[in-house]
Amino acid sequence: MATLEAAARTAAVPSPAADRARYDRATAHLDGPVAVVDLAAFDANAADLVRRAAGKPVRVASKSVRCRALLERVLTMDGFAGVMSFTLGESLWLARTGVRDVLLAYPSTDRSGFAELTGDPELAAAVTMLVDDPAQLDLIDAARTGPAEVRVCLELDTALQLFGGRVRVGARRSPMRTPEDLGAFAELVQRRRGFRVVGLMAYEGHIAGVGDSVPGRPVRSRMIRLMQAKARAELAERRAATVRRLRRVTELEFVNGGGTGSVESTVAERAVTEVAAGSGLYLPRLFDNYRSFRGRPAALFGQPVVRRPGFGVVTVLGGGYPASGAAGPDRSPVPHLPPGLRYDPMEGAGEVQTPLLGAAADDLLIGDRVWFRHAKAGELCERFAELHLIEGDRVVRTVPTYRGEQRTFL
User: DSSP characters for 353-397?
Assistant: First the structure.
């Protein structure tokens, strides 16, 4: 099994040509499209996350992995502890398959899941629910089938507010923003039979998920860095005050924050006890534009060349796998190997075929493979039932994604 020492030994970065040759050799016996994970890159990325976390545990964001075999792999590595899940159904499934520390990072209205959770003390001990409204407690109680105590995590709104609140920078998540908001709600939860506050979560997506070095956009990059510096300082003060307020109500087991793009700044806060990360394991294209770290693309998908419409053009099968979020060019996958390919601006990444332009196209033959990187991480696994795990130039194991296990949680 992977270790940080092994990751360090294999951390030398191959050339793009060498990577392409390895992936082509490893998958030559497979029909495309195919999805692969380069284990040397995956392990090196994991080791780098642990290094950046500076001794604080990294909780793995499962939505960015969506493959149990790879979740299990990373959880065996020193420095990683627990899973951050995205639905209650997924949380219960992971707990039943052996994950003993699952933090559900989003509120749920899953009544059958509530019934299962409250009727099974072992599940209730393994899963922590995120709650930010009394109505969510009411839903849990209405579906309750047993006396099992529900572990509760509260969430702090991390958005930066400017000009007296008229401008907001950050995701719209929790309605609770101030230490007093959280303290009063924690007191309400603690008074309610069958619930116990055990943690605080605060995800600073405007720092963790926004690159600060956008190619060709120096002014925009500078503005992002200024915004993030202000946001970090404001949030650090407010998060620390919130933790102090909550500890007057209950003994917190954890204070979770951050993401792949903010690991260093998040763990620098004394109030934070753990950091969440997942995308940094696969390193999709949205994480190319950060000054603070450089990873290795580990998850890729290969599409076969099926047409050669003319000079400087090839067409691959499928490939139109857009990422979630506000629509734009940055939500499309990016042709990665061979280098030098780009989309036809009139067609983009297509549902059933994708033309690619560039001089590199003239060296591609029918049946050759073009390797792409997805814009985001785990969403790739919603398009493929299995991942082929590559070591060197061999597929050493083929493992199911969530979809391959017939689990489509969202």
Answer: EEEEESGGGGG--TT-EEEEE-SSSGGGGGS-SEEEEEETTEEEE
